[in-house]
Structure formats: structure tokens, C-alpha cells
Write a structure and sequence with these properties.
With 186 residues, the chain is α/β, with parallel strands linked by helices. It has six helices and six strands; from the N terminus they run E-H-E-H-E-H-E-H-E-E-H-H. Strands 1, 2, 3, 4, 5 and 6 form a six-stranded parallel sheet that branches. Strand 1, helix 1 and strand 2 form a beta-alpha-beta unit. Helix 1 crosses helix 6. It starts with 6 loop residues before the first strand and ends with a helix.
Amino acid sequence: MSMAGKIKLALIYGSTREGRLCDSVAAWTTSRIERDKRYAVDVVDPSALDFSNRLDGEGREVLDEVGARLASADAFIVVTPEYNHSYPAPLKALIDAFGPEWHAKPVGFVSYGGISGGLRAVEHLRGVFAELHAVGIRDTVSFAGAWKRFGPDGLLRDPADAERSMATMLSRLHWWASALAAARDN
């Protein structure tokens, strides 16, 4: 945990596409996390990472820096779209580039997409994070028909249901992050 007693939370973008809706969904998510006051947020955006030459030079330095940020996190929230019934390849590359950084930490999910709201992507991610010894939070925030839910200004229309879901997820995430941080310290 951070010096101020806040949970260190890494918010991970799932999309790297140009013109991505992920920016709006992640901005809404970040604003809700910051409003909660129990978290210190660190945004990790795979679009800023180059995995093609990650083992040498500047690519290695960037990867080491991201690894240090993930290692210092107490919890994660992944904001992901659903592409072809799963999650995007750049998100998979980011996840697979690390191992112990994920161990014994909770992961919450905010998903978006068409009719399924990105829930199929989340179901795939649950198995991946379980393999990495991370704890997936049951409660999620999901935006079905996301392109109609967020306006051209990036703001969420009719946010009441999403606000309730986010409050529940953040409460569960806080409990797990606190419990697992204490367990990791032992």
C-alpha cells in the first residue's frame, strides 16, 4: 500500500486501436476510482509499449519500468473491449510479459462491447489471471452497446447502473487488496 494508506491500483487499458472507445471508458473508470479516495491510480496503456523488441535496448527499459509499476501495485482493474469473443492481443502481450508481478493480487474488470458488453472477454481473462495466481473479482462493470452509452464528448449517458456496479466492485477490490497485501507481508 502507498504511504497515505491508499491501495495502489494499476488501471490497465485493453485496447490500442486508434480512435478507441477505451479512452472514454477508462476516463470514466478513473474518475470513479479517484472519487472513491481509497486508491492511488497508475494508468498502464499498452499502446505506449513496443513488444516487438522488448528484450533489448529501449524496449527492455520500458518493459522493466512497467514491470516495476505492476509489481508495486496492490490491485488491478483491466478496462477491456471484446474483439471476436475475446480480449485484444496487445492486452495478452502485456499480461504475458510478466509473471510474479500479478501474483496474489486482485483484478477487477470493466468491459465494453456489443450485446455482450465485453463479458466474453472478461471470462477469458479470468482464466488467464487465475493461472498467474491473481484473484479475479466476481463483480464487474459492463457496458453493452457501449458506443451508444458514451456520447461524442466521452461522457457516459444514464450512469446510475454503472455507478452502482462500480461502487460494488471497488468495495470488493478494496477488501481483497487489503487482505492479500497483509498475506503477502507475512
